[in-house]
Write a structure and sequence with these properties.
A hairpin with a 2-residue loop joins strand 1 and strand 2. The chain is 21% helix and 36% strand. The chain is an alpha+beta fold. It has 1 helix and 5 strands. It has a 5-stranded mixed beta sheet, covered by helices on one side. The termini are far apart.
Length: 73
Amino acid sequence: MGKNLHITPRPNGWAVISAGAERAAVIAPTQAAAAAIGREMAINRGSELLIHGRNGQIRERNSYGYDPESSKG
């Protein structure tokens, strides 16, 4: 499983950044655009995508990798 990807606010847009990275992989003008890019990257890496709100709190979390916790329903 690859490193988690985070969508975080920046003064000039929204950043797609890998966990532990110092620099953003992509800066997009809107959160929706950054989320779409991040989703594709997370699917390709088999990782988790965490979308943060303007306040920095995680507002959405999606897993695109192996998930050992399978639930019914």
